[in-house]
Structure formats: C-alpha cells, structure tokens
Amino acid sequence: MSLPPPTEKQAKIIWAALTGLALATIVGLVVGLVWGLGQVLHVLGPVIWPIAVAAVLAYLLDPVVDFFERRRVPRTRAIALVFFIAFVLVAGVFSSVVPRLVVETRQLVANVPTLTAKLETRATAWVNNPPRPFLSILNRLGIQWSVTSTDTNTPATGTNPPPVLTEAPPVATAEPVPASPSPAFFGQIDRETVQKATEWFGSALKSTGGWLGRQFSRLTGFFGVIAGLALIPIYLFYLLLEKRSISDNWTVYLPVADSTFKEELVFVLRSINDYLIAFFRGQVLVAICDGILYGIGFALIGLPYAFLIGAVAMVLTIIPFLGAIVTCGAALLIALVSFGDWQHPLLVLAVFAAVQGIEGYVLQPKILGDRVGLHPMVIIVAIMTGTALLGGILGAILAIPLAAALRVIMFRYVWKKRES
Q1: Is the C-alpha dihedral spanning 404, 409, 414, 418 positive or negative?
Q2: Exposed e or buried b for every residue in 247-272, given b needs 16+ CB within 10 A?
Q3: How far apart are the C-alpha atoms of 116 and 333, rounded to whole Å?
Q4: How many whole angstroms separate alpha carbon 349 and alpha carbon 332?
Q5: CB 3.0–4.6 Å: which of 36, 39, 68, 114 could bond 78 by disulfide?
C-alpha cells in the first residue's frame, strides 16, 4: 500500500525540519572542532606557539628580504642581513626604551594607592562642586543637581569605656609527680611518640614532595619558554629561506587527489593567505606606528607614563577601535588624576585625534593601500572568541587565521553574489 505524496504544507514542514537538523549538525561539528582544537593547543602549545610567532614575523620580514634580493643580494645573505638589522634594532630598543618602561611600570605600581586616593577626592569634589557648563546643561534639560556636603571635622562625642579589671584565676597546684614511673607509662609514652612522629614525618614528606613537584613544573615550564624563544629564529630563518619552494610546491603535498575538490581547497587556502598577509603586514605595522605616535604625543604634553602608554598601545591597537578606545581612556584617567585640570585631558584628546587622523589619512593608505583585509568587527570578535575558547595569546593569534578561513568559506559557498 503506497502512501500518498505529502501536501505542500507538509513538504514545507519536512524541509524545515531537515534544514534545522542540518544546522544543528553543523553547529555541533563546529563546537566539537573548537573543543578539539582547544585540547590540541593545550597539549601541543609549547610546540605550536614558536611556529605561530615565527610565521607572523615571516609575514612582516619577507618584504624586507625581497627588497634586498631585488638589489642582487643572495637570499641567504639577505636573510642574514635582515637578522642583523633586527638584532641591532631590538638591542637598541632594549637598551633605551625597556629600562624606561620598567621604571615607569614600577612607579605606576607604587603610585596606585596615591592615584586611587586622588581620584576619589577629586570625584567627590566634582560631585559637590560640578562645573558651571555641566550645571547649565542640566538646567536646560530640567534636571536639578543636588549637592550634599559632609562635615568631616566634627569630633566624635563617644567616650571610651573604662577598662574592666578582672582577677586572675587561682593557679591550680600541680600534683606531685611520682619519682619512679612504672614501666607501662614508658611504654605508653613511647607508642604515642612514635605514632605522632610517624604522622608528622608522613605529612612533611607529602608536603616536600608537593613542593618539589611544583618547583620542577615551574623549572620545566621556564625551560620550555626559553627553548621556544630559541627556536623562533630557527623557524623564521627556514620559513624565509624556503619561501619560494613553499609557495610553488605546497599544493603538491596536499593529501588530496587532483580533482575539482583540490582546486577549491587550493583557492580557499590561497585566499586565506592573502587575508593574513593583508592583516599582519598592515594592521600590525599600523599598530606599531600608532604606539610610537601615542608615546611621542603624550610625552610632548607632559603626561606621566607616556612611554608605558605608547608601548601598551602597540599591542592594544592591533584590535581596531577597541585598542584606541582603551588607550585614550587610560590616558584621560591619568591626566585627570595627575593634574586635576581640564587642559591636559583636552590635550590628550587632541593627541588622540591627531594620531587617528594620521592613521586614517596617511598610515592606512600607505601601508594597506587598496587591499581589503579582515573587517575590524571580525578581528575584534575573533580575538575575543579565540582568547576565551582557545585560551591565552596563542588562541588570539590563531583566531585570526580561523576567522579568515570562515570568511572565505562563507563568501565562497554561502553568501555567493548572484550574477545579473
């Protein structure tokens, strides 16, 4: 007995159910992939992070190596020359800038209680005596600002209660100790002493073993970090040296037979690489320039901790919008607490506006050109998600390639542009 075909309404319900099942399957696969990637990163983090850092540096230094190679310098010598220049620059930075950063960081940490007290005092004074322009704006809006004054000079009226004298309890007289204890008493003392000594020795041994285990873990972690830092130049050298061989032959090593699927895979990987080049060669260089400009501008207006703010801005402004907002907010807070006037916060805003103008009209057109990288919102969401799910700086670094891959796949296979 054959069933009748579904009606139009039933067919819509069936297709909607199948679509929901497919979406749930895709979401489950993505969640499982992210979880599995997080586990892999947790286990292989010491192996992966030096390669990731070396790959980022290779993106940045490859144009410099190509520049020397176009001047008829062999590629190996060009890489060695770039390494020497980078070493000189890093040594110069560490000898001139890093000591200043260390000093300013120590001063900021030492002055945090004082700055907090100043901030509370000035906030209270501002609430009790707000500026006239602020009051006029509130009056135009029909809002009445109530000022509450507190008198802190009123002496306390309470008196301390007199001390209560208590008599010491009578000392109990000790019973006379027998001159010759019985042998059973010695046996009881010996058993209790041995038992307590055994328990104390076991707990001490356990604590010592735990302490030694923690110290060994810290030691191995320290040596792991040192080994990773030592491997970064080696990975970087071979990535720069084998650049042409990798770019010409990487498709041969794909474990996929020649087919339409392999062509699509090659297209997707090349598109991801283009987006990564646009990001790391563009946004990172722009962030470095922004940090230098912020440090110079804040130093010119006399803002404390200007070098420290500029160095932090180099890292934060890699995240578009968010890094600039955090940098400006921190500079405004330090200016308000340190000077207590309105001129220096206005100067901070002027420096911020000048740096943003230079970035928008000079740096981005010169560095990025007409290349389109990842959208700023995509970068922000990717870094935040990678830091939360994958964990740490490594997760934030690897979140950018994952975001680029997702963008390429979505625009290639989901959000296709319909031809007219």
Answers
A1: positive
A2: eeeeeeeeeeeeeeeeeeeeebeebb
A3: 11
A4: 8
A5: 68
CB 50 within 8 A of CB 229: yes
Find where tokens 């100790």 sit: 177
pLDDT digits (tens, 9 = 90+) for 319-368: 777 788 888 988 998 888 888 778 888 999 999 999 989 988 888 777 76
Write down the number of H helices and E strands in the chain: 14, 0
Length of the chain: 420
Q: What is the pTM of this model?
A: 0.61
Cβ–Cβ contacts within 10 Å for residue 69, how many?
14
Rounded Cα–Cα distance for residues 245 and 331 (Å):
47
CA distance 420 to 417: 9
Tell me the C-alpha distance between 346 and 122, whole Å. 17
pLDDT digits (tens, 9 = 90+) for 355-378: 989 988 888 777 765 555 667 777
Tell me the domain boundaries of the chain.
46-99+221-245, 259-420
The whole-angstrom separation of Cα 281 and Cα 61 is 9
